[in-house]
Write a structure and sequence with these properties.
The chain is mainly alpha-helical. The chain is built from four helices and no strands.
Length: 71
């Protein structure tokens, strides 16, 4: 296919092998889903990594307190 031809012509075989997971159908579906979320504004931004981790920990605590049937 075109990607493999490009990889061969540029000598990028090692890079291609290490990053092949990115081009799997499953991963690309996730990439498309993420793009849709970004375009729809279903994303959060944080001023730093610490704030993001705190938000994730809070969400995890809240999820633990939810009844099983609505998780």
């Amino acid at each position: 296919d075109g990607i493999r031809d490009l990889v061969r012509s540029r000598g990028l075989g090692d890079v291609y092998k290490r990053q092949a997971w990115f081009w799997t159908k499953r991963w690309q579906e996730g990439e498309r889903e993420a793009e849709e979320d970004i375009k729809a504004g279903r994303v959060y931004t944080y001023p730093n990594a610490e704030a993001a981790i705190e938000a994730l920990e809070k969400a995890a605590r809240e999820a633990e307190n939810q009844p099983e049937n609505i998780r």
